[in-house]
Structure formats: structure tokens, C-alpha cells
Amino acid sequence: MATNSTGRRPRRPVSFLPYMNTAAISPVLISLIILISGCVSNSADEQERWDITAQTDFGRQPRWSPLGGTILFGDDTPGRTGLWLWQPGQSPQPAADSLPAHNWDYRWSPDGSRIAFTCPGEAGADSSGIWIISVDDGTLSRIYDRGRDVCWSPGSDSVVVRVDHPTSGAAGIYAVDGVSGRAELRVSGGFKPICSPKLDWLAFSDGEINGQLHLAGGDLSKIVTGAGANQWEWSGDGRLLFCVVNNYPSDIVRGDVWRIAVNGDSVSVDTAIVSWAAYPAPDATGGQVAMQRTSTSRWVGVWIYRASEGEVQIADYGQNPSFDPTGDRVAVNANGGGIRVLTRVK
Predict the structure, then answer these.
(1) pLDDT band at 299, cuts 50/70/90?
(2) What is the pLDDT of residues 242-294, one digit of tens each?
């Protein structure tokens, strides 16, 4: 059997029927086997079981709140367009009574009290730009009339955002004060900013599609990958960054996941801890990272990587995972629509 990128053999899904001579088995026994196999967990590993413990029939791209317990997700179907808040076990509720269209780049504030999102449209239009929702009462306010790819700065009221058409100066990444709306350029030409939720580190790319990943913190600015960085996400404590890197010029698009650690002013990089993956979603400390597998042979669905154990499949479906920062729960898009919460039960 081939090994995975960690040098370990990937754990195989549990399957009963392929190893049996079904022609020699009675119809009653076959029915019993099918019934039992239908009760098997979503996990593909017999030593680790993850069950669906909550689900919705609409919505996609879930994001757990920093304090856990609540999932933010979006929808764009008629009658349900907008952003929704969902406490698993209850019915999803609109994040605000009236909401402009969203760009699918919504983010929780580090303390979970607010949500920032961007609205598409021409810069300066009535609804375009950066909006903030107060979670407690659903109050909605616009703080800037342009921008995309919004993220919160840690410990402050400001957000960072990519601005393509500033009122003056260069396109790039701007810090926008959440109260006054005053914008200041932080990175000229930068793309897709994501701030560490706890530390003064900013991850961004120098290209829209095939750029290098940069880290900036304090007086330090460092390029941490080659070209091809296209997805990255911080652990809840803000100390580990997981990034997907592809080599587009050589047509090697296999989704290598890199792990980048920050400690003070130092940065260390582990390349290709996992391959054939997308949308890394670390837990609170980065000890576990959920990921969406690309469709390569039987390696599909949602998997989890742990540094001490390697990889394990927890579902044979799902996209855009989000890890609960308070426990072993992963929210994913269901293939047929809606969101599923997978919970580790053993």
C-alpha cells in the first residue's frame, strides 16, 4: 500500500461486503449486513468515530465563533439570502433583520461579539464595502464604502481589508477603524489578509492567485512560501498558520499543506505535512487540523491531521470544514446542501 505524505499508510475505510462471497450468503444475512453497515459512523477509521450530531438543510461555509457554541454561515438561495447564526440543536436565526448581499468573506471578531463582512458592488455605492453586525442585538452598520477579504485585528476595533480602488494612494491592504472608518495603508499590493486572532501577525499574499505567502508582525516581514499559496488559516491561539501551496507553473496542483509557527520574532516552517488537501481548519492550538480532501481516488471527504498520529478520515463527504475551538466538533458543507456538525464520540 502507498504511504501518505507523512510516511504513514493512510487508514482505510471500513467495508464489509467486498471481502465476502455474497452469492453464498442468504438474503436474510445480506439484509442484516446492509443494516449494520448503514449504522457505521461517518468516520472511515474503525478506531475513531465521528457522528452527525446536528444539521441544517440550507447554508454553506460555516465558521464557529471564537468561544464555540455558535456557527455563522451564509446562504444565497431565494428567501434565505444572508448570514445566519446557528446554535446546533436549535433553529438557525438571521444575523440581522435586513442585510445587504455578502461576499462570502465574513469573520467573527476575536471576542465573538461582532461580525464583519463585505458587500459586493462598485466602490462608493450605497451598499458596497465593510459592514459590522453586533451579535447581541443584530445592529448593522457600514464603516467603509469599499473593500473585500475582511479580517479583524486582534484586541482592537479595527479590521484589515483588501482595497482595490482606494480614494487615494495604492491598492493593497488597509487597516480600517471600526468606529471612525478611517483607513490607513498597511501593505501596498497585498491580497487576502488574515490576522492572527491573538498576536500581532498578518498573513497575506503578494498575488491574487499564484502569489507567495508573507507574514508581517511588528518590524518583521518575511516571505514563508514560494508561489502558489492560495488558502491559509490561523489556529485559535494565533501561533500556528496552516497554508495550502500549489505549484501552478509546473502543473503540480496537489494541495500541499504547510505548517508555519510564530514565536516572538521567529518563524519556522514545516513544508508539505499533508498533500492533496484544501481549506485547512485548525483547532484552538493547531494540534489538529481538519481539511477537505481533493478528489483523488478514495481520498475524498473530510480528514484530520494530527502531528502525533498522522491522518484520519472522519467523513466521506463535505467541504469547507470549520473546527470548534472548544471541542472535537467539525462543521462542514454537506454535498447536497446544508451543514453537518460532526462530533467525535470515541
Answers:
(1) low
(2) 999 987 666 667 899 999 999 988 899 999 999 999 999 999 999 999 999 87
Give the max Cα distance, the chain. Answer: 78
CA–CA gap between residue 259 and residue 56 (Å, rounded): 32
240-254 pLDDT tens trace: 999 999 876 666 678
Q: Which three-class secondary structure string do you get for 79-106?
A: CCCEEEEECCCCCCEECCCCCCCCCCCC
The strand order across the sheet containing 252-263 reads: 229-234, 240-247, 252-263, 266-274
Long-range Cβ contact pairs of 139-145 (< 8 A, separation 24 or more): 139/96, 140/96, 140/98, 140/99, 143/176, 143/177, 143/178, 143/179, 143/181, 144/176, 144/181, 144/183
When the pLDDT of each residue in the chain is averaged and rounded to a whole number, the result is 85
Q: What angle do CA 326, 243, 264 make, to 5 degrees?
A: 75
Amino acid of residue 42? N
- For 24, phi then psi, to 5°, come to -95, 5
- Per-residue pLDDT, averaged over 304-332, amounts to 95
Instruction: Give pTM, 2 decimals.
Output: 0.84
Is pLDDT above 60 for 7? no
Instruction: Express each pLDDT in 204-225 by its tens digit.
Output: 999 998 899 999 997 889 999 9
At 20, list the grid cell. 465476502
How far is residue 208's CA from residue 197's CA, in Å, rounded to a whole number?
23
- C-alpha 297/C-alpha 275 separation (Å) is 13
Give the list of residues 6+ apart from residue 274 with CB closer than 8 angstroms, or none.
4, 5, 6, 256, 257, 289, 291, 303, 305, 311
Q: What is the DSSP letter of 334?
A: -
Q: How many CB atoms lie within 10 A of CB 25?
A: 13
Cβ 291 vs Cβ 310: under 8 Å = no
Closest CA to 260 of 237, 242, 233: 242
Cα 288–Cα 292–Cα 297 angle in degrees, nearest 5: 120
